[in-house]
TrEMBL record:
<protein>
    <submittedName>
        <fullName>HD-GYP domain-containing protein</fullName>
    </submittedName>
</protein>
<dbReference type="InterPro" id="IPR003607">
    <property type="entry name" value="HD/PDEase_dom"/>
</dbReference>
<dbReference type="Pfam" id="PF11871">
    <property type="entry name" value="DUF3391"/>
</dbReference>
<dbReference type="Pfam" id="PF13487">
    <property type="entry name" value="HD_5"/>
</dbReference>
<dbReference type="InterPro" id="IPR021812">
    <property type="entry name" value="DUF3391"/>
</dbReference>
<dbReference type="InterPro" id="IPR006675">
    <property type="entry name" value="HDIG_dom"/>
</dbReference>
<dbReference type="InterPro" id="IPR037522">
    <property type="entry name" value="HD_GYP_dom"/>
</dbReference>
<feature type="domain" description="HD-GYP">
    <location>
        <begin position="139"/>
        <end position="335"/>
    </location>
</feature>
Length: 413
């Protein structure tokens, strides 16, 4: 490039911290690839507070086009650094939030189940209510993600596809909250998640639910669900293009070894990268007709080992932070041998959650005892109890659904 063009570009483009970004700026370049963000256009006028929040959540700095920016150059030269509070502070505890979360989850789940059944039977369906149902879940996620994440752990094998769609939507929204992106982008992640697998209802259900290993021909048939889903949802002219992309591409991989088209990383957008991760997590932690459920810890390990090849590395790390080592609702074995359900985790003591102990060291049922591992310490300050391992949901006959219904208003000591 000729030197005078370089000079013009350097005068026109300014690099600033995202804490200094303001509405009215023209964003011309980011500190990460555009495909790793939810922004559709590579260069845009910043007019939406949600987009401003998203920039601050995902990027450390950006480049603005001074000539296109509406803020005078004299002001740009003395931009103050904005305070950067936590994007979404927790505003309710899990025991209080689970009432609202359960209501929103149930309403959305029932709608998803009806939608899938209509697709299976070839009936006409409508997606008009889905965005509003997603918004209700987003409000709960914003207040405290632990409540809805807890509900994603309650699973039934005979409702796998509907629950999986619902849970992937919830997990995707929780990831969006962790990233600090704006609500409209969190809502779009939820919509992508809830609809990503609708094409499975047009498959041969005997093949889809086959308990044994699929033949090559049967697996080729299962792969068609992405095309079927895309065809089904393309009939709705109001559905965002990002959702259609996710439906078609959520089994693609960054290394190009996915399906249906083997699209490599440079062709996969932010929403697809995010849904791929949460889709795998929920599948691994669920009982399916052909495989047993694995623990949350195992699932996060698999995601971490697949980062860079199958999954987006930055999003995997953020998802691990979002779920945590001991997520609410997880079954854990303590150093004493006792078994309990994680109720809540203090961000200051992530390895020492509050636990409802329901099995003794011999794994026999006992009267429930709630213990805050962070608060119970010996004279030298060391914790009396620690988590020894995370167990698979349902271990030792512990029914999380029954536990939740019986303990909506848990209080600790």
């Amino acid at each position: 490039m000729p030197r005078h063009k370089e000079t013009v570009k350097s005068l026109q483009v300014m690099k600033i911290q995202t804490d200094q970004v303001r509405l009215g700026m023209y964003i011309s370049e980011l500190d990460l690839p555009w495909l790793e963000t939810p922004f559709l256009f590579q260069g845009f006028m910043l007019e939406d507070p949600d987009d401003l929040m998203t920039l601050r959540g995902l990027c450390r700095y950006v480049f603005i086009d001074v000539m296109k920016t509406r803020i005078p150059v004299t002001e740009l030269e003395q931009l103050p650094v904005a305070s950067k509070p936590i994007a979404y502070p927790v505003s309710s505890d899990v025991q209080a939030e689970i009432h609202s979360a359960s209501r929103h989850y149930g309403k959305a789940f029932r709608h998803v189940r009806v939608l899938l059944e209509r697709i299976r039977t070839g009936e006409e369906n409508s997606l008009d209510e889905v965005p509003e149902l997603v918004r209700g879940c987003v409000e709960s996620i914003i207040r405290n993600p632990s409540a809805l994440l807890w509900l994603t752990r309650i699973k039934h094998r005979d409702q796998y596809t509907a629950e999986h769609c619902m849970n992937v939507g919830v997990l995707a929204m929780a990831l969006g909250r962790q990233l600090g992106i704006g609500r409209k982008h969190i809502e779009l992640l939820g919509l992508c998640g809830m609809l990503h697998d609708v094409g499975k209802m047009r498959l041969d259900q005997d093949i889809l639910n086959k308990p044994g290993r699929l033949t090559a021909e049967e697996f080729d048939h299962v792969k068609l669900h992405v095309d079927f889903g895309h065809e089904e949802l393309s009939q709705d002219p109001d559905l965002p293009e990002e959702v259609l992309k996710v439906v078609l591409q959520h089994h693609e991989r960054l290394d190009g070894n996915g399906y249906p088209k083997g699209i490599p990383a440079q062709g996969l957008d932010f929403y697809t990268r995010a849904i791929t991760i949460v889709d795998a997590y929920d599948a691994i932690t669920s009982r399916r007709c052909y495989s047993s459920a694995r623990s949350s810890a195992d699932a996060l390990k698999i995601l971490y080992e697949g980062r860079g090849a199958q999954f987006d590395e930055k999003l995997v790390i953020k998802f691990i932070e979002c779920i945590g080592l001991y997520p609410p609702g997880a079954l854990v074995e303590l150093s004493s041998g006792e078994v309990g359900v994680v109720l809540a985790v203090d961000p200051q003591h992530r390895l020492l959650p509050k636990v409802a102990i329901v099995r003794d060291a011999q794994k026999q049922p006992i009267q429930q005892q709630i213990v805050d591992l962070a608060a119970n310490r010996s004279e030298d300050g060391a914790p009396d109890l620690r988590v020894r391992q995370v167990l698979v949901d349902g271990s030792h006959g512990i029914d999380l659904e029954a536990f939740t219904q019986a303990n909506i208003n848990l209080s600790g000591r």
